[in-house]
Each structure stands twice: as structure tokens, then as C-alpha cells.
Amino acid sequence: MTSATETRTRVSPRHGFDSLEDETHVDGLPVTGELPRWLQGSLIRTGPAKWEVGERSVNHWFDGLAMLHRFSFADGEVSYANRFLESRAYRAAKERGEISYSEFATDPCRSLYQRVTAMFSPKLTDNANVNLAKLGERFIAMTETPIPVQFDAETLSTAGVAYDVPGQLTTAHPHLDRATKGMLNYAAKLGPRTSYRFFLLPPDASKPRVIATKPVRQPAYMHSFGLTERWLVLAEFPFVVNPPALAFSGRPYIENYRWKPELGTRFHLFDRATGDSVGPFEADARFGFHHVNSYEDGDDVVVDICTFPDAGIVEDLYLERLRAGKPIAQPNLERFRISPQSGMVETERLIDESIELPRINYGRCNERPYRYAWGVGSDGGWLDRIVKADVVERRSTTWREDGCYPGEPVFVASPDAQDEDGGVLLSVVLDGRKGNSFLLVLDAASLDELARAEVPHHIPFGFHGQFARG
Ligand SMILES: [Fe+2]
């Protein structure tokens, strides 16, 4: 008989950081439970899948070569396909057998001559492994370099650069502009006069329009931003870079950023209609990747973010540490209530449970008051539970199963839903006991399991995906 302690020590999330080489297509995954008949469409995800190239490993979880995964639902059945994103970075790695583009925390090995050449002609990676968006009829995989990659959702084949980004850095977390059905996103324009920018890209366009701009000397690392009906919300965490360092330091991208807690967290609000900005409104130093939601409450602006006490989480996510099972900083769901009139920012932690990779009922609640967020959490080790946060009642519920490690839970509203949480969650879960992954379908209200569909192999831990109705 195996004791609970022995089971826990044997099962680990280690396989989630193993590279996956195989590209497959499986019709009719084995399903246990029952899928809702209304669930028709595809969950498409991107994420790192290959961390070893030739003799070398990249350094960081975020550096792996992007793979697309698609789960398609029709008439109670699920099919699965996966394919590497055929980016320039991927093709170069495959053809040359070495890392050829600069990633988040990894640079190619370069001679001094090559380094000088690269300064004048930087090989920005197009390894779009963070998130994807559907803009009009286009599917676009994204990372934080200005090279969004369009792909075909049926074949998962890569089509090319989707649109121009008005800057050198951007986010993989655009927002929907409800009025135009276009995409709102952030860019940092680096140069002698560095600035933060926001741009709007209409559904069928490739040239965006800059709608707001603000000069900045040392831009902060920016992974996402908030949106209310009136404002674009920029949370400037004190993890900042001196722009020339990005070109001349010779260090990988993220290693040029410095943690300067004395700067605090500075919120800037940009009026979506005029581009005018107010702020900064200052709070204590925090770090974060993901805004959860924002909305206006009278004159106040409420901004919910998954935060960390500092930027140490970036260090925690280096592959060597993850593969060794080292502890990871825990994210808190925090509310920042900004009063533009008084200039004050009130801070409140909303739930006790940690939560990251947050999702909401976006179609109904983005920019607006809301009640529920779903994400993944843990009690100090790797993410091992799905968390439902009730930000009105300030409480949470969880789903977990021994030896299982779920990824971002994507909310899909049922067609006849009355309630905000009427729908399902779709999460790719690594089964650490068996070494493969399954797609988990939970009732989003109760977190009861409805069904699971088993994949023949493991799916490396990724970041984000979207559901496209079929
Ligand atoms: Fe993200």
C-alpha cells in the first residue's frame, strides 16, 4: 500500500517542462463524462513546447519555441491537433540546429562581430508563444515583440506577419474595442524620445492608429493593461529598463530590467476618446503580469490585478529552477481603487487563495463591474488547482485532483446563460501520475467536473488560449 506522502513525493509537474517534438492529429479523443451538446467550436492555445535546440537549452519557461494546440468540439466529441508555429525563429532553429533569435531570457551564442552586427539589425523573435487573438476572421499568435503571427485555425499552418505594431515592444493581451470590434493594444516606442502608446487596429486592417501616447524615460515591463468604458489603464510596476541597455548591454532582454521599489506602482489613465492622460496615481511597489478586469465606480476606477510583492517571479520561472521543483512566489488577487479627484489609491487583497492566469466572462463583464474570475493557484509549489474567485463576496472555491496540474481555465458562456458564471471552463491538465495531459471541462459555477478528454501525450505547460465558436 502506498501512503499519501509517498504518492506526493513521486508525482511531480516535471513533465510539463519536457519538450514535445511530435505533431499529431487525433479524431475522437476518449471522453469520460458528458460534454454539453451546446459546446461547438475550438479551444486554440499557444505555448512553449521545445526548450532544447541542438546541444543547448534555452534559459526560461517563456523562451520555448511556440506550438499551437487545438481542441475541437462537435456533437459531444473532441478532436485534437498540435503543430509548431512556423515562425522564423522556429525555422532557423530547425535548419541550423541552434538558437538563432533572441528570446525573453536567452540570446543566441554570438561572436563579438555578430553582436555588433545584431545591434544594427536586431533579429527580433517572432516566437509567438504567449497568447492568441481572433480579430475579424483572422487568428493571430502573439508575444511581446512587434511581430504578431497570423495562422490558419483549421490546418494550424503559419501565414505571416498579421499587422504592424507602432513600437518595439507590445503585449500579448490586447482588448476588444466593443464599438469597432477592433483590437486595442499597448506598444512602447523606444528611441531618443521613448513613449508609451496605445493603438487601435480595425478588424480587417494591418495598419493601426495610435490613439494615446505618453513620454517615459525608463519604461516599465508591461505584460497587460486594463480597460474601462472610458479609460485605458496602465499599471507601471517599478521593473524598468533604460532603453539603450536593450540595444547595447549584450544581455538577454529581460535581464536589462531593474527592480526599483522606490518608484512604487504608478497608474496612468488614458481617455479612450481623446487620448488625454491623467496620473500618475501612486501605490506601493508591486509586480504583476495580468490585469483581471477594470471598471468605473462613480468617479473611481477599480483595477483588479494578480500581483506579486516584487519581480522575483521572473527569476522563479527560469527552467533550471522549475525543473528542480524550487518554490515559486504566490500571486495575490489585489484591487486598486483609484480616485482621480483625490489622487489616492486604496489597495485591498480580495481572496486568500493565490490565483494566476485569470479569466473572466469577458464578453459580458470586461470594462464593467463583475463578480467572478477563474484562474490557477497553489499553496507554494507548482500550480495545482483551479480557483474560482467571487470578488463581491471576497471568497473562493477550488477544484483539484492529486497529481494533476491544470493550466489557464478558459471560460465559455452557455448560449442561454442568465448568470455571469453560466457556462464551462476548459483547462488543459497535466496528469503527473500518468505523464500525459487531458482536457478538463468543468461547470464554471460549481467547479463540478462534466467531462475529460485524454490526449495520448503530455502537453507542455503553456500560457493562454481562446475559444472560437464553431
Ligand atoms: Fe499572459
What do you see in this structure?
By secondary structure, the chain is mostly beta strands. It is built from 7 helices and 36 strands. Strands 2, 31, 32, 33, 34 and 35 form a 6-stranded antiparallel β-sheet that branches. The longest helix has 9 residues, at 88-96. It is globular and about 55 Å long. The N and C termini lie far apart (47 Å). The structure holds fe (ii) ion. Fe (ii) ion binds at residues 130-131, 173, 223, 289-290, 463-464.
Number of helices: 7
The biggest beta sheet, please?
6 strands, antiparallel
pLDDT < 50 runs, ≥5 residues:
1-9
> What's the overall average pLDDT, rounded?
93
Structural class: mainly beta
Gyration radius, in Å: 21 Å
- Described by the principal axes of the CA atoms, the overall outline is globular
Oligomeric form of this entry? Answer: single chain
Beta strands, count: 36
Note the gap between the termini. 47 Å
Helical residue percent band: under 10%
**Ligands bound to this protein structure:** fe (ii) ion
**Beta-sheet strand percentage?**
35-45%
Can I get a quick summary?
The chain has 470 residues and is mainly beta. Helix content is 10%, strand content 43%.
Keywords:
single chain; 470 residues; six-stranded antiparallel sheet; five-stranded antiparallel sheet; 7 helices; 36 strands; 10% helix; 43% strand; globular; binds fe (ii) ion
